[in-house]
Design a protein that fits this description.
By secondary structure, the chain is mostly helical. It is built from eight helices and no strands. The chain has a domain of about 60 residues. α2 packs across α3 and α2 crosses α5.
């Protein structure tokens, strides 16, 4: 594989993770679709599934991101060929920072989920417009308070 073409492989993996199919990835990068399928197969045989990367790309909650990073750290630790070096140490620091943030924001996520459930209940309970206006003011005040406390 030529050097220029080899440098496109990570880009191909990233485009696929973002939801493009192999044909569109090939077109976007100006390579043959057979190259994309070959890279996908070779990476899968090496333990780097492109489909897992696609699933990881869709994760949006902090706990999910932390779980992905823990899996990647475990993969790095298990691979004797990889010299993890300083970037693995940085990844550990990022995971630690995210876990700290998750501890601070975990309660906020739960609070917002409860607010959402109460909002759904209010809209389906047939409350009067006046009652709904009061609930809106209460929610607005509560969210303003959360923001003021940096939660």
């Amino acid at each position: 594989m030529g050097r220029a073409k080899a440098e496109l492989r990570p880009q191909a993996r990233a485009l696929y993770a973002q939801g493009m199919d192999c044909e569109k990835v090939a077109g976007a990068l100006g390579v043959g679709v057979s190259s994309i399928y070959r890279w996908q197969k070779q990476d899968g045989e090496a333990g780097c599934s492109w489909d897992a990367g696609r699933a990881d790309f869709r994760v949006q909650d902090l706990r999910g991101v932390i779980a992905i990073l823990h899996r990647r750290l475990a993969t790095i630790a298990a691979d004797e060929k990889t010299a993890a070096g300083p970037w693995a140490d940085r990844l550990v620091k990022v995971v630690s920072a995210l876990e700290y943030m998750e501890g601070k924001t975990g309660n906020v996520n739960m609070k917002l989920e409860v607010c959402d459930e109460i909002g759904t209940f209010c809209s389906s309970a047939g409350l009067s417009d006046d009652d709904l206006a009061v609930m809106r003011r209460v929610f607005d005040a509560y969210l303003t308070d959360l923001k003021a406390r940096n939660l």
